Amino acid sequence: MNKRFLIPILFLFTITLVAQEKSVISDLDELKLDIGQTYKPTTYSVDNQGKKYDCERVIYYYKKGAFSMTGKVMEFNRAKGTIKAVEPGYHEVVAICYGSGKSIRRTFNVTINYPKVKSIEILTGSETIYTDTYIPLSYKITDQMDVVRDIDYWKSDNAERYFSNLEFSISSSNDKLEIDDSNNVLAVRSGSATINVVFDGVKSSKTINVKKNNVNNIDLSIAEKPEKIRTGDVINLKADAYDKRGNLLNDVNIKFSFTGKSFDKSNTASGLILQDGRFVGDVPGKYILTASFGNASKSKVVNVFQRKVQREVKKIGAGSVNDKHTSDFWVFEGVDKRDYAVTGTWGADGTAYFWDVTNPSDIKKIDSVQVDARTVNDVKVSPNGKIAIISREGASNRKNGIIIIDVTNPYDVKIIKEYTKNLTGGVHNLFIDEKHVYALSAGQKYYILNIEDPANPYEVGMFEIGKEGQSIHDVWVEDGIAYSSNWRDGVYLVDVGNGIAGGTPENPVAFGNYTYDSGANHATFPFKSKSTGKFYAVMGDEIFPNGVNPNGTNETAGFLHFVDFSDLKNPIEIARYELPGHGSHNYWIDNDILYVGMYTGGVRIVDISGDLLGDLYKQGREIGYILTGTSDGYIPNDTMVWGAQLYKGHVFYSDFNTGIGVAKVSDLKPNNSMTNQYVD
Amino acid sequence: MNQKLLLLILIPFFSLGQNYYAYVASESEDTVSLIKFDGKEAVEAERIDVGFMFAEIEGPHGITVDPSGDFWYISLAHGNPFGTLVKYSTETNQAVARTTLGLFPATMEISTITGFLYCVNFNLHGSMKPSNVSVVDPETMTEITKITTGSMPHGSRLSPDGLFQYSVAMMSGELFEIDALDLKVSRVLNLENKIMNDKKMVGKMMNHDNMKGKMMTDDKKENMMNTMGDMKHSMVKPTWVIPHPKENVAYIAGNGSDEVIEVNLDKWEVSDRFKTGKGPYNLEITPNGKLLIGTIKSEGKTAIWNLENKEELAIIKNTTSVSHGIAISPDSKYAFISVEGIGGEPGIVDVIDLDSYELVSSVKVGKQAGGIAFWKKEI
To answer: Choosing among A102, A548, A641, which should be mutated to test the B contact, i.e. which has the most B CBs within 10 A?
Structure first.
């Protein structure tokens, strides 16, 4: 056979890969650098016989990536092949060795040394230290680059992070203090003692004066005790300490604690007690509430009974959309005093539907608009019932923006204007407040538009956090305050006309902010409690722990965070509504009742009257719920509630798979006639 | 074995039909479709859901297949606020890893020499300011660095040797060359030169003439980036650049000026310009180097030029409106064109025969079909 013919044939049909396994070797391994030091690593490869090969080229990079390098952990000069140390800590560097047309890589641990400690200050707080109490110690460390770090061993993760490998010791000059294995310091005898600490070879001392604990008796009472304490009712404990002569002691910090036993032996007692004396019981049972200081204590026993707020909730009407997904909705009173609603659509053809909901048991689809978009995520209507605004995402020309619609006659709505300036990146949510529209732009900021003349809207203002990577999901306006939900940056309270911070729509001024660890802040609803006068920002999460499946059932997570904003400068997250197994989406609050779309958990109606503390779901505050999946839904029998709105006594909702619906909360208790019973 | 016998065995083997596979992203449906074309008919072999946020359209935009064919990569334009790059196995079409990139990550390609993926962060919304190119190690799915380029960078393509990455900045009207090894901008070319002579246009554009053909120092680059904050919109609006597979030239789609611009990469200067229909958007060159294919977005058409003489050989009406991306089979026989459609219309992939210049098959995919990448040809 002709060899010239055979060789290509063999090449075509026989591919034999002979690979010599190689590994990257580098003096980066366990390298220690000082801040500011530039280093040129030596990197090569070896095969499994130990033979060394030079790399034709080496590229180094920080393993956590450029996104994590906002603070610049290290700098790479790839032309010179050098690394410069910037941020102290333990880091990983990947070295890629190129040779013979292949690349191999390996990760190396590199330590950038913390600068040596220069000085230490021991902090003990302002409280008087008494015998039989723990001393709240923390340390202010200043390093040789004059960077100051506060290390609090009561927050051990912080201490671990920075100083886990440094030499640390703590001791007392005498037996007036006892120090346990976790470096907690207990005052055991009165008198003077010196705490000595050594950090990284640098010593510091602080003299502690321990006073004799004179507390002989504690008086414990419940302020404004209700006749009957129910689950979820917050009671306020008042405790005073006295010496043996009966003198009131003012400078002692009394600790509160509780134990309990559920009335139901299959359940366990549960509740929360704060160090300001507030207590709430989640589960019906007998609770022992204790105030203590040192070895003195006093207890009170309280019975906590079922809240019993459950009511029957019935579906009374629906407007079906089952050929596409439904998004947000808004119910409004038309200029003719009849009642109407508008719904958006998701991942579809840019349609928004208009409904006559005057008779909630007979909802009628009366008109629609179709715009160049794939998603009309949000819809809102002006308070006078004349103007609707809808958001656009996925426009074919990528200009998106908003559409302004005349809904004076909801049976024949008319598009007035398409507005896209600065909104081309897609408008996910929007709000209409008097003559202004607040429209999100590309998920980064919101613009404020004047729509006094809806045919000629114009931009008057803009609000953004101003951070790298700023992100926003929603904005809601009430009483001249805009509440924007900014994912990991939490809620921002912005004066857009209230006057509290001198802001206007033309000059929005932020005056409050609250963030939480999950970074999932997706919506915020302001809530002034009718029963207590307290002001809360109710911040909702949106979390899909296993990703999303728009064509099937999803797992959802996240909850509502109740943040007490009564003191604007010191917001405190005080309670949560978390439905096990289901995540939160959009919600509404009226007359101390929460109406919340819990995605797969349906519409939930929750009593949020009175003071709020702890786990609201566990406290039996839920009044009732409905599941909204239907057999003819876009995804059959798949409840996926988008949001809820109370309107003229009816609970309206939209569901991703079924459209719009209405429910009514009855005065009757739930009908349990169909519940299976067990013979005692 | 004699030659006749061997040929007898091999002929049936070679005469079997060939199947061509391409992936196409549907930006408004958060799906990617795998298209199979058997030489006669294109079908949607599989539709894959992509994205991670339920109520958001994350906008899969750019797509590429790695040189081994084992993985495909999709850029999701919208995030919180940064977009995402997701790596999928071609064997299972399941996601295997992801990483965060910049604002509106779009077009990307993998260098055969470095193995890195270079993805432009289009950042087309909001005020115009310099954006960047993300460089990702696809092995570890780590974004190694971001390299600042121009305003609204688009059309990331590598030189045939994999040593240089090219992109154009749509709003600042520039061609950027990045050294794929040093991971730095090596050259910038102002594409507005010709139009600058038009007095009506003067004053509407930035002037980077002083940079033409020069290697920049880091300081100069930094100064240049700083001045870009005040830039005016380009009249050329370049949206795509494709280096020639065999010659040291690149072709650029002038989406705003309705032209193709040829750049001599040795001299680093514009060597030719020729007019197109309205809104040329993407360009690709057949692997044999003979034909240039371009989508004429605003007209919903695809154009084919002979690169020897720049003659327009054919202009083909696409099946729906808003023509977008192009993928060409490695045998230079077929072009797969993604066409977006409008509103509730489905996206379309049109297959064009590059011998007859005829549209031979079409297949519906998800809404707003955009990024498209050829995967494999198999017997």
So the answer is: A548
B323 Cβ under 8 Å from any chain A Cβ: no
For residue A94, give the nearest of B27, B140, B340 by CB distance: B140
**Portions of chain A given CATH number 2.60.40.1080:** 3-112
B 15-74 residues with CB below 8 A of A?
Answer: 27-30, 49, 51-57, 59
pTM above 0.80, yes or no: no
The answer to whether residue B293 sits within a structural domain is: yes
Beta strands in A501-647 (DSSP E): 509-514, 521-528, 535-541, 560-564, 572-577, 587-590, 593-597, 603-607, 614-615, 622-626, 641-647
In a domain, B23, yes or no: yes
Q: Are A374 and B367 within 8 A, CB to CB?
A: yes
Identify whether the C-beta of residue B160 lies closer than 8 Å to the C-beta of residue B243. yes
Q: CATH: 3.40.50.150, 2.60.40.3440, 1.10.540.10, 2.60.120.580. Which one for A117-211? A: 2.60.40.3440
Q: How many CA atoms lie within 13 A of B264 on its CB side?
A: 8
Q: Which of chain A's residues have a Cβ under 8 Å away from the Cβ of B56?
A: 428
Residue in B10, B59, B99 closest to A65 by CB: B99
Chain A residues close to B379, C-beta within 8 Å: none
Q: Per-residue pLDDT tens, chain B, 379 aa: give them.
A: 456 655 555 544 444 579 999 999 999 888 999 999 999 999 999 999 998 776 677 889 999 999 999 999 999 998 877 899 999 999 999 999 999 999 899 999 999 999 999 999 998 776 678 999 999 999 999 999 999 999 999 999 999 999 999 999 999 999 999 999 999 999 999 998 654 444 444 333 333 333 333 333 444 443 343 344 444 578 999 999 999 999 999 999 999 999 999 999 999 999 999 999 999 999 999 999 999 999 999 999 999 999 999 999 999 999 999 999 999 999 999 999 999 998 778 999 999 999 999 999 999 999 999 999 999 999 7
The CATH classification number of A3-112 equals 2.60.40.1080
Residues of A in contact with B181 (CB under 8 A): 57, 59, 78
The answer to whether B350 and B340 are in contact (CB under 8 A) is no
What's the gap in Å between the CA of B307 and the closest CA on chain A?
A: 30
Mutate to test the interface with A, among B1, B32, B57 (most CBs of A within 10 A): B57
| Model ipTM over 0.95 | no
Distance from CA of A552 to the nearest CA of B (A): 11
Say if residues A604 and A559 touch (Cβ distance below 8 Å).
no
Best A3, A5, A59 member to test B by mutation, with max B CBs in 10 Å, is A59
For chain A, say whether B2 makes contact (Cβ under 8 Å): yes
Q: What is the CATH number of the domain that holds B228?
A: 2.130.10.10
B358 lies in some domain: yes
Chain-chain contact of A441 with B125 (C-beta, under 8 angstroms): yes
Q: Inspect the interface and report whether the beta carbons of B125 and A426 lie closer than 8 Å.
A: yes
Please report the sign of the dihedral spanned by the C-alpha atoms of residue A218, residue A222, residue A228, residue A231. negative
**In B90-232, at which residue ranges do the beta strands (DSSP E only) sit?**
95-100, 105-110, 117-121, 130-137, 142-151, 153-158, 164-169, 174-179, 184-190
Q: For residue B127, tell me if it sits in a domain.
A: yes
Residue B176 lies in domain: 18-378
Split into its structural domains, chain B has a count of: 1
Which residues in chain B are closer than 8 Å to A415, comparing Cβ atoms?
Answer: none
Residue indicated by tokens 């209405």: A662
The answer to whether the CB of A448 falls within 8 A of the CB of A459 is yes
d(CA B372, CA B379): 22
A313-665 folds as: Methylamine Dehydrogenase; Chain H (2.130.10)
Q: In 10 A of CB A535, how many CB atoms?
A: 16
3-state secondary structure of B193: helix
Does A66 contact B6 at a Cβ distance shorter than 8 Å? Answer: no
What does CATH list as the number for A217-305? Answer: 2.60.40.10
Give span(s): CATH 2.60.40.3440, chain A.
117-211
